[in-house]
Amino acid sequence: MAAAKKRKTPEARIYDTFIVGAGISGLCAAIKMKKEGYHDFKIIEKATRVGGTWRENTYPGCGCDVPSSLYSFSFALSSKWSHLFARQPEILSYLEEVSEDFGINELIEFGTELEHAEWDESRHLWVLDTNKGQTLARTVVFATGPITEAQIPSLPGLDSFKGEMFHSAKWNHDYDLTGKRVAVIGTGASAIQFVPQIQPKVKELHVFQRTAPWVLPKPDMDLGDTSKQLINKLPIIQKSWRKAVATSLNVINFGLRNPAALKPVSTAAKQLLRVQVKDKTLRKAVTPDFTLGCKRILFANNYYPALQADNANLIPHGLVEVEGNTVIAANGERHEVDVIIWGTGFEVSHPPIGRKVIDANGDRLSDLWKDTSPEAYLGATMKDVPNAFLVLGPNVLVYDSFIGLAEAQLDYIIDGLKKVKQKGITRFAIKPPVLKAHNDKVQKHLKTTVFNSGGCKSYYLDQNGRNFAAWPWSLKELKRRLSDFNVGDYEVVYQSAEKKKAA
């Protein structure tokens, strides 16, 4: 009898590209790759639907502070926005529609979370472990976003609190706030949106404010059905509106790079506060003591009225301790509450994706970032992290739409993916001297911007005072730099002649 033939173990499927995340960046990456005829990719999403931060944040009043005309993909303009500034439910609906219209939903593996990503130097491949199994890929696009992990401070006595407690990004819609005594911790972008929504319901509202933010009037309005029909019928209106908004944001960006130009706006804003807030003590407490733009500029029309309501109490100090159901401010002020709502933002200086990625030296990125914050070249490629891109990474933040920034950066990334494939490159990594020169120049020019010189401590700065977030030049300059993937900036390894022949 003939000997049985030895069965071959099938080789693992190797994708050209692996995309992590199906929020704004991940969807944009997949759509642009499809448009370029690039189909050999896999996209995973840990949740059961697309949307990223707009899926996770559902707190009352949640919306965008960038006009809706600009908060949309250039290739998928919408005429459905109900207001000049879109609300969270319709932004999420828009992203879901875009995913469906461009055939991305069917490509996404939902309920799949990246657990570990490690570079295999011997094979020039990424080994990606998920809760659904292992995948191999030649390149990776980490589209996990900069606003993903809610931040709750560790405070003495917090474990002793017996009431309800949640972060704004994990809002408990099943808990009825009616008649409750509520402590809101933080006065950032989320808090100024949900505070006016919950204030009429609660018995007592205690708002803990470490630093008074600049809150400017929001030029919002209901567009109505007639306006939406007109925009739908005449796309030129949408395009002109989008261009006008982009121009106005460029003016703001100029001011952020040249703080002296914002002085008249600061003066006018302080004069406006005299009209908005009648009580002198409260007005003094909500008047910022730093240059406009140093921290994120906030926009709201109902925040100051909410703080002046009879049941509201602004505490111009941080929360430092909890004793049972008593919350204690830095000035010793004590209040018994039923609920603590954290409006304390997100961990942005140390992106959570760093805990899951192992570089070419076998180091975990989060360990390398432990005493500093991450660096990248054009916010996209990192030292010793070959064949990988990060979307909306360090030092690309411009006062504009995140969607617009993601689009610009993905043009660079996809140009890189195409060139790598065309040239038969199996490994590419940013040259350390190129990375250093780029970041040295970025940090030098950031010194004179309002972010660094405006006299505040913002989330743009890490624990060492280094600005890891902002781009120090214009959006036009960022887009110019991102318009071409220069292979010369990278150390590359080409496919061998034998492998080319076999391929």
From TrEMBL:
Organism: Alcanivorax jadensis T9
Signal peptide range in chain numbering: none
Keyword Oxidoreductase among record annotations: yes
Pfam (any one): Pyr_redox_3
GO MF terms held by the record: monooxygenase activity
Superkingdom of origin: Bacteria
Keywords: Monooxygenase, Oxidoreductase
Protein name: Monooxygenase flavin-binding family protein
